[in-house]
Amino acid sequence: MDVDWETRVDAAWAALDSYGEDRAEEFRAVIDGLAAELPEGHPVGLFERACAFDSTGHSDRAVPLYQEALERGLDGYRSHRTAVQLASSLRNIGRAEEGAALLTAELEKGEGKGELEDALRACLALCLADLGREREGLALVLGALAPHLPRYQRSMANYARELVADGPA
Q1: Which of 143, 129, 70 has its CA nearest to residue 100?
Q2: CA dist 50 to 59, 111, 113, 132, Å?
Q3: I want to staple 99 with a disulfide (CB 3.0 to 4.6 A). Which of 5, 87, 151, 166 is the partner?
Q4: Is residue 143 part of a domain?
Q5: Structural domain contains residue 128
Q6: At residue 72, what are phi and psi to the nearest 5 degrees?
Q7: What digits encode the pLDDT tens for the residues 48-87?
Q8: Of the candidates 13, 70, 8, the residue with the CA atom closest to the CA atom of residue 43
Q9: Helix runs in 39-152, H state only
């Protein structure tokens, strides 16, 4: 992988919407071609293929690729993206409990997620909602939203905590 390869991958992803649903297979072929430029089994190639399946409505085919990418040592920013995307795909195929466990563990690590922190919490909230734990999910989303509000940050953060406390604070 080099800057040129990354640039071409970014350009392919930027064009995703231009393919539409009727040309999803064509888009996946573009990503497959780029992934094939990497050594076979390269975690980044597996990740990109998983993303292509995921983004074109095939969460079931994305899950094993995400898992293999992590097993083969995917790290850094892409590994944090994989946690969010894998959990979302697991939820989409009826395995929300596994998705929630994955994201809970990721949150507990508390390291290096940066800009993905809110997405991680939003995805966890969706998994929790599927598990009948809507109040916990809403608390996560409000807690993630609060710092971005121009006003009422403190209030929203308190309301988020109240949702999962034994009673009103």
Answers
A1: 129
A2: 8, 24, 20, 28
A3: 87
A4: yes
A5: no
A6: -90, 5
A7: 999 999 999 999 999 999 999 999 999 888 999 999 999 9
A8: 70
A9: 43-55, 59-71, 76-92, 96-109, 117-130, 134-145
For 115-119, the CB contacts below 8 A with 24+ separation are 116/77, 116/80, 116/81, 116/84, 117/144, 118/144, 118/145, 119/84
Are 35 and 48 in contact by the 8 Å Cβ rule? The answer is yes
Reading the block at residue 7, the tokens are 């640039």
Say if residue 9 is in the same domain as residue 90: yes
Q: Which of 13-17, 20-24, 36-40 has the lowest mean pLDDT?
A: 20-24
Total number of domains constituting the chain: 2
Q: Which domain holds residue 155?
A: 133-169
Together in a domain, 47 and 104: yes
